[in-house]
Amino acid sequence: MLIKEDGYNYKERFKTSSKFLIANGYYGYRGSLSEDTSKDMVVWNLNGVYDQVDNQWRESVNAFNPLFTFIKYHNETLHPAITQTKKHNLSLDLTTGILNRKTTFIIDDCEIIVRSRRFANQKNLHLIHEEYQLSTNKPLNIELYQGIDMNVFDISGRHIKKIKQQIIDGVFFVSGITQEKEHPIDVMSKIETNFESTDKPELTENKLLHHYSIKTIPNQTYRIIITAGVIHSKQHQKDILHKMILNSNFSSVINENNYFWKEKWNKAKIHIKGNQEANLAINYDIFQLISHRPYNEFVSIPARGLSGQVYKGAVFWDTEIYMFLFYLLNDIHSAKNLIKYRIHGLPETKIKANHYHYDGAFYAWESQEFGFDACSDYNLTNPITNEPVRTYFKELQIHINGAIVYALNQYLTLSKDYSILKSGGLEMLIEINKFYASFLTKNKKNKYECINVIGPDEYHEHINNNAYTNYLIKFCMTTMINYFEYFKKSNLSYYHEISRKYKNIINKAKDIEKNIFLPKPNKDGIISQFDGYLTLKDIAIEDLLAKKKTENEYLGGKDGLASQTQIIKQADVVLLLVLFPNLFSKEIQKANYHYYKKRTEHGSSLSKAIYSILASRLNEVDEAYDYFINGASIDLTGKSKQYAGGIYIGGNHLAAYGGAYMAVILGFLGLDFNNKTFNKNIPKAFEDINTKLLYEEAIL
Ligand code: IFM
């Protein structure tokens, strides 16, 4: 349960610091080095706080960096990018959440050894801790600095203004407010040292620093313990944070932290026997999913987790379709928070629907606080010309609504917590269906059609009757009708009340359920991804990729190489088959699996796990394993797309983590939700898999 990396690689440092990210749902802190600065993308990313500067993209906010620590020797700052090292390694211990670092610098024939351990406080979510130690093998005169770096890494403008610094009883305190909503961001840090040396605090280059001049005694350890905290409440809670920091005791926090992880692993660990690589990968994914659990019902989980501002720190359908199952089966309270986050977003969804002249609720493609849609109409740039590219994700990916219904239904099926329906869940369902009802059009044959959308495969825009979307809409209608029926049996007076109030949408839903156009398999068993898809140019992926003019070229959209071909970005029809396993026979599933696998580029990290699940269900277990291991270890191997067009999209791939979990539970273990049975499909690469699942936990 140890993730390790030996040696320092400057070019790969962003990937490395994603891999070693620590988080607790309130924040994420990238696994950068103590001496790194904003150019190394040091990020303390806050969940649920967003800001916009001028007309740039609205994105999540990063706080000041309180773990900034470095050594100067002969006026040179030690850093493995410029200083000779004998050894450098990082290791993340998944059993305790502690990130360890050890570097041996060589200077003037002398060794300076730096060791640190860092972890996110999982109980008091405001706090982060680091122990930093140094020793030398010969006497040296060194300068040691530790403090708060106020040069925050930001993608789209500087978000914190009116920055003030203070030192209160030796505790450093830096505060500021965000540009747009003037939201307070307070960071504090306290340090404890085991050595006697005069501290000469200084403010230099926007850094508030303790400064110690030390004449080292060989092999003696000089230790600093940093306890830092961040708070971003509208009610200024500086005093509370100050108290938390003063009261925090490193060794008790370590014990609490160990206890937290022990409890979590006891529930959530997956044992993949006979395959250490897969075992480590899936448990790394689980580690990150636990670390990203939403800390209350007003936050969710961004697509890149809390690794920074990529994708604007926004929440996508990734959460409901890919990550949700993990929380459902391991941490039902977090699953509930995820649903409630969407319920709280309802007012914003009505504004969006209205903007596009539809009824009901149209959920954000890129959801920020209270469901605000941060998706831009120009969400990509051309990597050659740097020109913005018009994209239609925001207005045409209407399948986002269905993803939320899918998760809600899973939640209800497993938890039986029907109270959520009365506290906004039913309204959400109704408003989503009102949106779909207003979006659909009736054709001459009296069939409802879904015209001008984008399905999960984003490469093909402005398509009609995306199979995934149409079936999902039918599912949304059925789900709503079923929950009305539930109330008919369980609470007749309430049923009468809502039946009267929502008569129109119920009648409409029944009509749509019966009459929506559902693409059927053709004579070869293939379901066309959308109208006309099967007539597009059928080209091999390698041939298409060979035509790329630049490495980061975007293949979709109006001018994209894939648009006029059958090459797709990610699982689409295959996702339909995975989410609705009972819709089609095994033969049809098989035909579509083989057809689409040759045409899927897997240009999204959301794709491979879905192929893995279907492959398992079709007993193609060894292929299932290949898809699984690729997706599950995406951030361990670093094999992921870093750019979409000209836009940086690196960071942590939370949907791939959730997808890997699904691949184990739904694929290898073959959980069938409705029948509560397992149908194991264990690939040759494993001996067996063991895990615990939380099934039908009562919600109090
Ligand atoms: O939600 C996904 C989408 O399906 C593909 N592009 C990236 C998004 C965020 O992960």
Description:
By secondary structure, this protein is of the alpha+beta class. The chain has two domains: 2-237, Beta-galactosidase, Chain A, domain 5, CATH 2.70.98.40; 265-695, Glycosyltransferase, CATH 1.50.10. It is built from 20 helices and 28 strands. The strands form eight sheets. Strands 1-8-9-10-11-18-15-14-13 form a nine-stranded antiparallel sheet, covered by helices on one side. It has a five-stranded antiparallel sheet with strand order 7-6-12-17-16, with no helix packed on it. Helix 6 runs antiparallel to helix 9 and helix 6 (332-344) packs across helix 10 (419-439). The model has no long low-confidence stretch (mean pLDDT 96). The structure holds 5-hydroxymethyl-3,4-dihydroxypiperidine. 5-hydroxymethyl-3,4-dihydroxypiperidine binds at residues 303, 311, 316-318, 456, 458, 604, 606, 655. Residues 303, 311, 316-318, 456, 458, 604, 606, 655 line the site of 5-hydroxymethyl-3,4-dihydroxypiperidine (IFM).
Task: Describe this protein with a few key phrases.
700 residues; alpha+beta; Beta-galactosidase, Chain A, domain 5; Glycosyltransferase; 2 domains; 9-stranded antiparallel β-sheet; 35% helix; binds 5-hydroxymethyl-3,4-dihydroxypiperidine
